[in-house]
Amino acid sequence: METLGRRTRETVDLCVWRGSHTVLVSQYASDQELRVVSPISTAFPTHCAAHGKALLSEQTDDVISALLPQLNDVRTLNTLRDPQLLLKAIQQVREQGYAVDREEHARGVCGISVALNTGSGERYALAIAVPSLRFDEQFPQLLAALLQANWKSSRCWSVSNTKPPRRRLNIVVASLFIQLEPSCARGCWCWLQ
């Protein structure tokens, strides 16, 4: 998390799945004056935060259908209110391999996230939280850095006999990884430290 935070100079969040909410369990705060920071243990509505949508995309359609009645918290004008639009957004996350929040849970706050395949019983998402002022101009770099961090973590977890992430995403991440940075000299866990 620290390596990702230092590389992007933005706040990095680690959240855990709790059904209708995701809970912030760890954070590396940005060093910039204008930054997004939330207290540890903050619960975010799953449907209107990037980490929540990334984790929703990992659930079966039956689980999502059962949760839909609970996913009605409206935080901003950009919060998805229509269940069909939310289902469409979740499908898009499944196809592209990452989720985006453009001021859906808080005005002025955007985020990008991926679900982590840790092989444990818990489901986690790694997210970058960014003031909306910088989000669009930095989006390609933020996405590349996040996908690279996810790729590095999946290498470690796949050594532990867990299934690797989606093949399509691995190919995209591998090409970004090769272009951005040579293999980590300290091993794949360095980005989490």
Describe this structure in words.
The chain is an alpha+beta fold. The protein has one domain: GAF domain (Beta-Lactamase, 2-Layer Sandwich). Helices cover 40% and strands 20% of the residues. The protein contains six helices and six strands, in the order αβββαααβββαα. It has helices spanning 2-8, 50-56, 61-67, 83-96, 132-159, 167-180; strands spanning 11-18, 21-28, 43-45, 99-102, 109-116, 124-131. The chain has a six-stranded antiparallel β-sheet. α5 packs across α6 (167-180). The model is unreliable at 161-193 (pLDDT under 50).
Which helices and strands occur, and which strands form pairs?
Elements: H1 2-8, E1 11-18, E2 21-28, E3 43-45, H2 50-56, H3 61-67, H4 83-96, E4 99-102, E5 109-116, E6 124-131, H5 132-159, H6 167-180
Helix pairs in contact: 5-6
**CATH level 4 superfamily:** GAF domain
Helix share bin:
25-40%
Order of helices and strands: HEEEHHHEEEHH
Tally of helical segments: 6
The main β sheet shows up as: 6 strands, antiparallel
Summing up helix and strand content along with how strands pair, one would put the structural category as alpha+beta
CATH topology: Beta-Lactamase
**Which class in CATH terms?**
Alpha Beta
Uncertain segments: 161-193
On the 0 to 100 scale, the average pLDDT is 83
CATH architecture: 2-Layer Sandwich
Shape: globular
What is the total number of structural domains? 1
Radius of gyration: 16 Å
Per DSSP, what share of the residues sits in E-state strands of 2 or more residues?
15-25%
The total strand number stands at 6
Q: Quote the distance from N terminus to C terminus.
A: 6 Å
Q: Largest sheet, order of strands side by side?
A: 3-2-1-6-5-4
